[in-house]
Specification:
5-stranded parallel beta sheet; alpha/beta; binds flavin-adenine dinucleotide; binds uridine-5'-diphosphate; 7-stranded mixed beta sheet
Length: 428
């Protein structure tokens, strides 16, 4: 009997590869007609531009082994994520750095002056920020908070920042120099031929059979063990209810020439209904000048309904309660392990996804050698929020490193109680 990986994203592909390299037969299925899961990229038929179909993806990591692994399957091209933001009719540089501060306050401060100035803006009476808003006020003060974080966050999460965990903001850098790199990790890049080509390379090994357009629910075959990277609640036919997610709507823009002049423009004002626009040819700067046309996407965030693609998991107290009940069900199930962002209901960056899949395969092979089945989970989904594998802070963040994402629940009619639920979570 062979193994089965449900899902041909990074999670399923890495586990399949590692098991196949150890001599096992693996069936990999995905209900989508393509590889790569949410990291799927493909060339646009009309322009030839590489499109990130489920939102822009930039690879960044501090995990040397993961970086070496992706470099086996792709030529990683130099790419640094530099984000611009529009606020109050002006364009700024993000994350907040010395340029942003000087632009915003019409000043020419040096690092020391800016640090002193921002310390004067920050709310010193907030010793222990209890929510997103307090976190921002205690670090950058009211003016920068209102300009860059308040409106954007209300649009992104559908909640007031006072109802959101401080942890959401903690991972954004705050710099008192002109470094406008959005990330702090030492390795960053973009695959020359996109992410789907990486996943295809990972799956190209003897012992792996790939079946696209195939739902797990339709498989009749007897399997040695299933590695399920689909939604945990879906595996159990949503019998305890649906775990909450934010979803995104992408509105396509086609134009000639250069539309934004950069890869990502955030729109921080609340009266602009979308959060950001991404122009995908700028994710491949080494292809500059090759395309006359351009393709961009406006991003709108909203609560996911039953038929929507789940993007950002919601992990407030209510959602964690339901998650705990599903985890209990999963621990009783036989012949299945839950992995990946959907299987463990956590936001995971690509590097963390790959690291966790590598570790799951290693643990599986060790268990098989002992004659034991793989466990239902390779880590506790309730205790883990999906932190970067190796947090690397080379510059001050808006706060000490915390969970990668601890997303809020924008459930209509429930959101008024979210602040209380967050306090309960904090007190647990
Ligand atoms: P997925 O990629 O979701 O793969 C799961 C697959 O399982 C899917 O293809 C699905 O079709 C399939 N499936 C599910 N259920 C079934 C079933 N029952 N039968 C058959 N098939 C099934 N990470 C970064 O490192 N950098 C970034 O810049 C970045 N940007 C992001 C932007 C957005 C908007 C979002 C939401 C995420 C971003 N990420 C980024 C995170 C990245 O998308 C994830 O790390 C990655 O997708 C996780 O891979 P996975 O294999 O666990 O899940
Ligand atoms: N954020 C913001 N303004 C911005 C960018 C980010 O307020 O211009 C907030 C927002 O709440 C977001 C969080 O910071 O969820 C983390 O930012 P990141 O860019 O990592 O979030 P993503 O867009 O990937 O959700």
């Amino acid at each position: 009997m062979r193994f089965c990986c449900v899902g041909a994203g990074f999670s399923g592909a890495v586990i399949a590869r590692r098991l196949a390299e150890a001599g096992h037969q693996v069936l990999v299925i995905d209900e989508r007609p393509h590889l790569g899961g949410n990291c799927h990229t493909e060339r646009d038929a009309a322009t030839g531009i590489m499109l990130h179909r489920y939102g822009p993806h930039i690879f960044h990591t501090a995990d040397r082994e993961v970086w070496d692994f992706v470099n086996r399957f792709a030529r990683m091209m130099p790419y640094v994520n530099r984000v611009k933001a529009i606020s109050g009719g002006r364009v700024y540089s993000l994350p907040v750095n010395l340029h942003t501060i000087n632009q915003f306050f019409g000043a020419t401060m040096n690092p020391r002056e800016a640090q002193d100035f921002i310390a004067g803006q920050a709310r010193r009476d907030i010793a222990e920020p209890a929510n997103f808003e307090e976190q921002a006020l205690s670090m950058v003060g009211d003016a920068l908070y209102r300009a860059f974080f308040r409106g954007y966050t209300r649009k992104q999460w559908g909640l007031d920042p006072t109802e959101l965990p401080a942890s959401i903001l903690k991972r954004l850098p705050l710099r008192f120099n002109y470094d406008d790199n959005y990330f702090n990790h030492p390795f960053q890049g973009m695959p020359e031929e996109g992410y789907t080509a990486i996943v295809a390379g990972i799956l190209n090994a003897p012992g792996i059979e790939l079946r696209l357009g195939c739902r797990f629910e339709e498989i009749g075959e007897d399997l040695a063990h299933v590695f399920y990277t689909g939604p945990l609640d879906r595996y159990f036919a949503y019998r305890l209810g649906r775990l909450g997610y934010r979803t995104l709507d992408f509105e396509e823009i086609r134009a000639e020439g250069d539309y934004l002049g950069t890869a990502v423009m955030n729109y921080c004002d609340e009266d602009v209904p979308f959060t950001r626009i991404s122009e995908h040819k700028h994710f491949a700067p080494w292809e500059a000048g090759r395309f006359e046309g351009t393709v961009c996407f406006r991003e709108y965030s909203r609560l996911a309904g039953a038929g929507d693609i789940p993007y950002y998991p919601i992990r407030l107290v209510g959602e964690k309660k339901m998650l705990a009940d599903y985890v209990a069900l999963a621990r009783q199930a036989r012949g299945v392990s839950f992995v990946g962002r959907l299987g463990t209901y956590r936001y995971l960056d690509m590097d963390v996804t790959i690291r966790e899949a590598m570790d799951a395969a290693t643990m599986t092979l060790a268990r098989l050698r002992e004659g034991a089945p793989p466990p239902p989970f390779f880590l506790d989904p309730l205790g883990q929020e999906g932190k970067p594998a190796v947090p690397a802070q080379s510059s001050p963040a808006l706060a000490p490193a915390g969970p990668r994402r601890d997303a809020p629940a924008p459930v209509p009619g429930v959101s008024r109680g979210a602040g209380q639920r967050l306090k309960e979570a904090a007190n647990r």
